[in-house]
Design brief:
Blueprint: H1 2-23, H2 29-38, H3 44-53, E1 60-61, H4 63-70, E2 72-74, E3 81-86, E4 89-96, E5 115-122, E6 125-132, E7 136-138, H5 155-165, E8 170-173, E9 181-184, E10 189-193, H6 198-214, H7 217-227, H8 239-256, H9 268-273, H10 278-328, H11 338-350, H12 354-365, H13 374-386, E11 393-398, E12 402-409, E13 412-419, E14 425-430, H14 438-448, E15 456-459, H15 463-481, H16 503-506, H17 527-532, E16 540-543, H18 545-553, E17 558-562, E18 565-568, H19 572-577, E19 581-585, H20 586-590, H21 593-602, H22 606-615, E20 620-626, H23 640-645, E21 655-662, H24 669-682, E22 698-703, E23 706-712, E24 717-719, H25 726-739, H26 756-764, H27 771-785, H28 789-795, H29 809-814
Parallel strand pairs: 8-10
Antiparallel strand pairs: 1-6, 2-7, 3-6, 4-5, 9-10, 11-12, 11-15, 12-13, 13-14, 16-19, 17-18, 17-19, 20-21, 20-22, 22-23, 23-24
Helix pairs in contact: 1-3, 2-3, 2-8, 5-6, 5-10, 6-8, 8-10, 10-11, 10-12, 10-13, 22-25
Amino acid sequence: MPEKNKERLKEITDSIEQGIQSLFQSDRYAQFLRTMSRFHRYSVNNTMLIYMQKPDATLVAGFNKWRDQFSRNVMRGEKGIKIIAPTPFKKKIEEEKLDPDTKAPVLDADGKVIMEEKEIKIPMYKVVSVFDVSQTEGKPLPILANDLTGNVKQYEIFMEALRRSSPVPFAFETMEPNTDGYFSEKDQRIAIRSGMSEVQTVSAAVHEITHATLHNYEQARLAAAKSDETAEPPKPKDRHTEEVEAESVSYAVCQYYGIQTGENSFGYIATWSRGKELPELRASLETINKTASGLISDIDQNFREVLKEYDSVLEQFAGDVYRYTASVMEPPFPLNSMEEEVPATVEDLKSGYGKDTRAAILNAAKIEGAASPDELLRRLDEIEKIYPPRETEAVYLLDNAAYLYLKENEDGYGYTLYDKESLRETASGFVDEGVSSIPTAYEQALVVEHLVPETSEKVSLDILSKIAAVREQDVQKYIRKNNLGDHEQAEPEPQTASDQPKAANMLPDAPEQALDEYLMPDSDLTVADLEACGYLDGDLLPLSKDRALELFEQDLTVYMIEDGSVSMAFDSDEIQAHSGLFAVRREEWEESREFSAAIEDWMKHQEQREAAFLKTSQDAFAIYQVKDGDELRDIRFEPLSWLESKGVSVDHGNYDLAYTAPLTDTGSTDDRLGELWDRFNNDHPADYHRPSLSVSDIVALKQNGVVSCHYVDSFGFQEIPDFLKPENYLKNAEMSMEDDYDMIDGVIDNGKNPSVAELEQQAKTGQPISLLELAEASRRENDEKKKSVVEQLRNQPVSREHKKTAPDRGAEMER
């Protein structure tokens, strides 16, 4: 066994040497540094072994450690990562006892040397297997620390941690654009160019700190002379070696903290390493590894210390906020004691929820007799630089080839991957429970999808609108291909007044002005049709035969209904042979892509849906939410008092109409608003695919023909009188439709349900007509001529020779 272990060790060490030599002759150097940053406490040998076997590894441990300490199990079929582990051999020996001062042997009374027993450790090593977290499953790992990414989060604290980790002081100066910074050995100081981005500043600072640590030859000479006056001063390294070490350490440290420094070119590495022997190359890697590891440890420790020092600032501020609000509010407000409220406020600030504290300050400032809140707001602005508002969604561009979209929802963080060229989805999923930040969700999404991008940058959320547009095109293409529309989508031609009567048969159906309705899988059928066939459970939705075949091809489960009984269709032949009604489970339909795509299509018809809400004769409600995109992120989820303090008005143009429906709740306006708040936060309708009702949303109510708009504020609702102007939006909705066909008539209300014949006669006399009403009249009259699909099915003769006996639900369970 010892011989076998020696052979394995030799085999592995030989592969390490080959790996080191090839590392500098290829473009793999940056990838090695990324691996090294994740395992900065490991030796160069083990870092190289992990890099060669699994370069995307993020956290490794042995089989038993995963099981016993982390409650995770290595998945079946996973191969271990071979590394070298120390297994020191203990041995007891006898040796002469030496005098601690003279170092001479100690003698006993007889003049003999006294021997003493001593235990020594003989260093030995063996090959062991470890496994990456991506090779395990089980209990989610605890979140150890927040990552830093993009524009460096908590930048001020991070820079202070860097200052404390630097062996010499550094300051900012004006420099030429091609110089990011320098280390002055003469003055023992570092200078960084002012005006750079946060990422570039951090990268430059770490680079120069490395120079000050490794290449401060004057300090090294003084230190050597202090311990041994005869010692030779350290020999300066050549400039190329110094730059390789500084740039490598900077890159590794930034990678450890998730700071993406962009495309780093190490093309000069091959030239620098040419002619160098293996010991020299290994020594450079060990120097880089040791320096990066030490700097990371120092930054981590100093970062924690700075944050701890800042706790007193947060506690003082939270106390001042409490006293300010309590001074103007009458009992029973505030409800909590100062001892309870201050820690809660501090935790909110640390978690990025400073907007709640801002809302409390601004609300208190409105009360008569309140002092100016300006000083508190200024201090809060400074705090939010340290603890910025937390992100809820982000998009990353990976290797300039794919977009990774991350979004927080009620179940945690979900992600979707899109191809950069086609903007179409390639993968999606959820990260582990317990993830509490976008950067951590980003790392876990990469692990789940087995991605190791060489470059990654955060990009604007605006790309989501382009992705949505492509998805809409795909949906429409699918609808046309499968004849899901009621009418052929013909491209209209410009028409004269005399040609307009023909339009009823030539134009596509205009979106009917109606409130958002539940999207049935078959628009020609209702639940009543299913009940008429004797099925009353309510968990199924009816389908015609053609629609059943379409959904069956989409892998949805189709059921056949006959005399109130239900059986599952196992192939298309059974569907073809069945002469009755079909159905699909409501839950499965609501989870289908087609259902989601149809709901997303609602958002493409803002004006028509708004016009339907304003024109409806029944009580109804509409929910408006701030449009997606970075340009409006400053007003999203902000209370009304904050908008007023910034001089920002509530603008209809900044909002999307998210949902409309009949208002079935009873009671006062406040009662109805309260019911809607509860429903759209705790039990929203299945066809509502938007975020829960939140601060900055607007709820419009139509009660007895009167429309009122209410801003969702930090505390209750605030009425916004001028948000909607019905006469303008009704006109815009119709004109946007008619403008597509050059048939604007300028009339808002064109009468009560005119017939096609009446509109044709009006056109013949040369009067302008509404294209919207013409399309509606055509559709209305066509619908009246349609025969009930259920009635048609009932009147069809039963074809006995082709009918199969479908298994009942009990038989299905036995399969």
